[in-house]
Known about the structure:
EC number: 6.3.4.18
CATH topology of the largest domain: D-amino Acid Aminotransferase, Chain A, domain 1
InterPro entries: ATP-grasp (IPR011761), ATP-grasp_carboxylate-amine (IPR003135), ATP_grasp_subdomain_1 (IPR013815), D-isomer_DH_CS1 (IPR029752), PreATP-grasp_dom_sf (IPR016185), PurK (IPR005875), PurK_C (IPR040686), PurT/PurK_preATP-grasp (IPR054350)
Helix content: 25-40%
Oligomer: single chain
Structural class: alpha+beta
Number of domains: 3
Radius of gyration: 21 Å
Number of helices: 13
Binding site for ATP: 112, 152, 157-163, 187-190, 195, 218, 287-288
Largest sheet: 9 strands, antiparallel
Bound molecules: adenosine monophosphate
CATH superfamily of the largest domain: ATP-grasp fold, B domain
Pfam families: ATP-grasp, PurK_C, RS_preATP-grasp-like
Distance between the termini: 60 Å
Order of helices and strands: EHEEHEHHHEHEEHEEEEEHEHEHHEHEEH
CATH class of the largest domain: Alpha Beta
Protein name: N5-carboxyaminoimidazole ribonucleotide synthase
CATH architecture of the largest domain: 2-Layer Sandwich
Amino acid sequence: xxxxxxxxxxxxxxxxxxxxxxxxxxxxxxxxxxxxxxxxxxxxxxxxxxxxxxxxxxxxxxxxxxxxxxxxxxxxxxxxxxxxxxxxxxxxxxxxxxxxxxxxxxxxxxxxxxxxxxxxxxxxxxxxxxxxxxxxxxxxxxxxxxxxxxxxxxxxxxxxxxxxxxxxxxxxxxxxxxxxxxxxxxxxxxxxxxxxxxxxxxxxxxxxxxxxxxxxxxxxxxxxxxxxxxxxxxxxxxxxxxxxxxxxxxxxxxxxxxxxxxxxxxxxxxxxxxxxxxxxxxxxxxxxxxxxxxxxxxxxxxxxxxxxxxxxxxxxxxxxxxxxxxxxxxxxxxxxxxxxxxxxxxxxxxxxxxxxxxxxxxxxxxxxxxxxxxxxxxxxxxxxxxxxxxxxxxxxxxx
Length: 399
Ligand code: AMP
């Protein structure tokens, strides 16, 4: 039966999620609230998702028998990270269980080359790039693209892992070796004004809903803070939503998707482009996409009518997306394992800050750079929310 003809899954149905990190955990919390059952599947046990889910299956992603048994026990399947082998989507299809978003989307998002080619094909603006398979192709690509540039592994990169910057005079063979001599994408380094992102959702009947555009700051290539809404000219927000809608339609997405953008300074965009479209045309480049809830959408839990995790649950269940209206200006700040450097953070100090909402992911080992939790602050303005959030986070650190 085509997916669009199935009736929505009511509360009481079971959603299966591949992956067991914090994104699955926050999905499981929404599932519990709304009376759905959630099963998680990953190689881990006592995982962030498994601590909340109704059932946790711990087995390898390529364990056919285990994946099949898991698929038989659920009404719909989704994933909370992209690097799940496409085998899982094949088995789900054999078992007649809908996978939302589809295995095709998962496949495209697993690899920077496929992702960028898909974006180009959809007529969406991406950072100039070249695909490189060996060190000599890297040399040619650097000549074409120029320096500085960023070399990124085509597969399995996140949070700045699997990336290296190429400056004039660096040894290209060392850069190639540093990333393990595997297929890569060489991207022009973008002198962006700001980094922005937008989370959007699309239901089985094609109903589309986008959250307001947000602004992200990264530290060491890892998301540090998000403020919502982004303070940008209205034309930029309208253009971002147009691009998000076009992408969701091109992919025939059923689920949630995040697009990360680089906003170019006005001066970088030539006059022709600006006069032929809106003032924002040509100012937004897509850095990457994720066909799932995203760290830059965590603010929606306290800051929007419908959280991005409820949105995932709704769309995966065949329901229409809920309202994406923002309730108040909001700031989200990540809590990385580095905060544990001198012992357990001072939770008391954080919890005395009115309006600061703590989220911890139930991870056992606080390693540097590891996302252990986040905090959210809502306020009259995004500046006030961020200021309070930064002070609350600083108070956590033991001296
Ligand atoms: P990514 O894993 O590709 O999202 O990269 C992580 C972060 O590195 C981005 O959010 C940017 O801050 C930075 N970055 C990645 N690619 C580029 C680029 N082509 N130009 C400038 N900065 C970049």
